[in-house]
Design goal:
The chain is 89% helix and 0% strand. It has 253 residues and is mainly α. The chain has 2 domains: 156 residues, ABC transporter transmembrane region fold, CATH 1.20.1560; 86 residues.
């Protein structure tokens, strides 16, 4: 049995509650970000709505009045869309970076208070990777995944309503296709998560290896082990490369 003393993390539900608690502290900024997402979604539907009058009134009917109005309307829609995307990116990044700063501080505080035996048992590279690489995964979840999920939800909602109003039969057919695509998307999503976990572990192992190699460079030189260490590094680098390619393949599929 492994007798190494490791950092004891809370259970999964407790960790989720802790992260949600940090997010709730920034609920006003999240509300502003959600308002910006609504603006982006509404302008996406508005731009789709403007396609029909742009084609019918300008190109088919050659209406000179609409030729002056519709391009201005399109410019205004995309200007408002740009403001919404800017506000959404700013507020969500502010919340995400704030949550990461808090978690990183808590993690460093926890590690620093551990006894000396813990530091003898743990690799320095692993501890460094936890504070740098692993924490960034949570940042991506908060600032990128949440943003994309909410923005796309509102966009799909607005476009779905517009599509049902325009051509309801085509909208029903689209939902059938999306339902059939749901299962493979879930399968590939699980594969991406597995590969991402392996990538985190590989990066932690590489960080630990680099720290040991560079800090023990005198020993490596004294015993003439440069070629041996190079081979070890090349193997670890090759594993990370393979995991990156697997991630790309799964996401692309």
């Amino acid at each position: 049995m492994d007798k190494k003393r490791r950092i004891r993390l809370p259970r999964l539900k407790s960790r989720h509650r802790a992260i949600l608690g940090l997010i709730r502290e920034n609920r006003f900024k999240l509300f502003l970000a959600m308002c910006c997402m609504l603006v982006v979604a509404a302008t996406a539907a508005a731009s789709a709505y403007l396609i029909k009058p742009a084609l019918d009134d300008i190109f088919v009917n050659k209406d000179e009045k609409m030729l002056g109005l519709i391009p201005v309307a399109i410019l205004m829609v995309f200007f408002v869309r740009g403001l919404g995307m800017y506000g959404q990116a700013f507020f969500m990044s502010y919340v995400g970076e704030g949550v990461i700063r808090h978690i990183r501080n808590m993690l460093y505080d926890k590690i620093t208070d551990m006894p000396l035996s813990f530091f003898h048992a743990e690799k320095t590279g692993n501890l460094m990777s936890r504070i740098t690489n692993d924490v960034n995964v949570i940042k991506n979840m908060v600032s990128t995944a949440v943003t994309g999920a909410l923005r796309d939800f509102f966009t799909i909602l607005f476009l779905t309503v517009y599509t049902f109003v325009l051509i309801w039969k085509l909208a029903v057919l689209a939902f059938v296709v999306l339902f059939l695509a749901f299962y493979p998307i879930v399968i590939f999503g699980r594969r991406v998560r597995r590969v991402s976990t392996g990538w985190q572990e590989a990066m932690a192992d590489l960080s630990s290896f680099l720290h040991e190699t560079f800090s023990g460079s005198k020993i490596v030189k004294a015993f003439g082990m440069e070629d041996y260490e190079k081979k070890r590094f090349f193997n670890k680098s090759k594993r990370i490369f393979a995991l990156e390619i697997k991630t790309v393949v799964a996401k692309s599929l």
